[in-house]
Amino acid sequence: MKYFTYRTDEYNFLSLMREILGCDNLGLCHKSYEQEEILGAGKDQSTKIHRKFYDYIDSEEERFSELYKNFIKDNIKPIFKEQLVYQKFPTFRAHFPNNVAVFAFHKDKDYSHPPQERNIYLPITNAWDTNTIWTESEEDKEDYSPIKASYGQFVLWDGNNLNHGSRQNETGKTRISFDFRVIPMSEYDESFSKKSISKNIDFKIGGYYEVI
């Protein structure tokens, strides 16, 4: 697991997410949306706040997509020093107080993801204690601890092989974040034939992925 910083004045996700979600204080965003029941299978990407974000993504507004692509080009690609295959649309997370962000602990490979993927965790609010991702340090070690990160940081880690998930949030603050996957072009396997479980999309360039 590696931590990196980026310039929030150039990649101002915070300001844009405030506009998209209609929340001046993202850490208190739960007060602007009706509290959902404890999220279960199939519901952790379909709440009102998730629909608000994804409806924006599906619109003709390009500002988020441009910011996301430029962030990857300028901040993630240099880490690998080659062309990068990246998740076309990031996964949005809203971890409300007294709720979870994902319904179960898991490894991404359990959901058919290619083994070459690396994970990027990009919190838009401070992430700590029970409002962030909990992961083991080595595969099947089960020594879970929280990934602590602040706005202006991103974390490169191995969600494909490490079991991870979320606790019930007892911090009183909403965590807003994105996570996405990347693959160095030299490791991309065009023959990989599995599809994403949630969207039934091929894990291929032009499907789940694009290239920078």
Describe the structure.
The protein has helices at 13-21, 48-58, 63-80, and strands at 2-5, 84-87, 91-95, 118-123, 133-135, 145-146, 153-157, 164-166, 175-184, 209-211. With 212 residues, it is α+β, with helices and mostly antiparallel strands. Strands 1, 2, 3, 4, 7, 9 and 10 form a seven-stranded antiparallel sheet that branches. Strands 6-5-8 form a three-stranded antiparallel sheet, with no helix packed on it. The two termini are 23 Å apart.
Number of strands: 10
Radius of gyration: 16 Å
Main sheet makeup: 7 strands, antiparallel
Q: What is the terminal-to-terminal distance? A: 23 Å
Give the strand content: 15-25%
What string gives the helices and strands in order?
EHHHEEEEEEEEE
Give unreliable regions as ranges.
none
What best-fitting shape do the alpha-carbon axes yield? globular
What number is the mean pLDDT? 94
Relative helix content: 10-25%
Tell me the number of helical segments per DSSP (H or I, 4 or more residues long).
3
* Structural class estimated from helices and strands: alpha+beta
Q: Which keywords apply here?
A:
212 residues; alpha+beta; 3 helices; 10 strands
Short description:
18% of the residues lie in helices and 21% in strands. It is an alpha+beta fold and 212 residues long.
